Amino acid sequence: MDQLIDFILHTDDALISLVAENIYKAYFILFLIIMLETGLIVFPFLPGDGLLFSAGVVAASTDMNVWVLLVLLIIAAITGNIINYYVGLTLGAGLKQSNNYIIKNYLMAHVPKAEEFYAKHGGRAIIIGRFFPMVRTYIPFLAGIVRMERPIFMKYTVSGAIIWIMLFLLTGFFVGEIPWVKNNYGLIFVSLAIVTVLPLLFSVIMKIFKKLTT
């Protein structure tokens, strides 16, 4: 647990230290973080895009095999989505009937919008959601609640996982040997987190502003 917290707060340094200590443990922790971030709705704060980029950078200059890592993290992302989908599928009926204030007014209040969103965009919602922190944690959960067809869900879950992991991990790997990137990927990690959160933050601000002005 301490190592998991260290990864969240000091991703780049923690990853380098862990690879030097035990490369197999590094593979396992990276797998676990990616799976938990997409697999359980209580872990939307875990690093995703920045972690993948940092892992690629570290793989470029250590004994970590980027191709082994690529396969492991794609499996982790797919597994996480499947777990989250079935949690939503299993708990969906009970959540819809719940009188709990938080569940009724915050979580389930978004279900009609999610149903409309999935009806309009179909599987693309699963792929697009991969590129937004926090959103990617809730997308498969809501897909289960609205009972998206399993074949469609699986098809786009696999496609989205492959595109997401390859984009960030391999970008980090292929630019990882550039001196400026080596010396500043802590800054890059933070920048990626900020840039990917901005669209979501902007959307929330606009909704609040709209409510205040109507």
Automatic annotation (TrEMBL):
Q: Does the keyword Ribonucleoprotein apply?
A: no
Per the record's keyword annotation, is Electron transport included, yes or no? no
Give the main location. Answer: membrane
- Sequence intervals crossing the membrane: 26-46, 66-87, 156-175, 187-209
Query: Subcellular location, in the record's words?
Result: Cell membrane
In what residue span(s) does the VTT domain sit? 46-172
Return the InterPro entries for the record: DedA-like, VTT_dom
Listed A to Z, the keywords are: Cell membrane, Membrane, Transmembrane, Transmembrane helix
Q: Which Pfam families match?
A: VTT_dom
Q: How does it sit in the membrane?
A: Multi-pass membrane protein
Domain of life, per UniProt, equals Bacteria
Q: Could you say which protein family the record assigns here?
A: Belongs to the DedA family.
Entry protein name: VTT domain-containing protein
* Taxonomic placement: Bacteria, Pseudomonadati, Bacteroidota, Flavobacteriia, Flavobacteriales
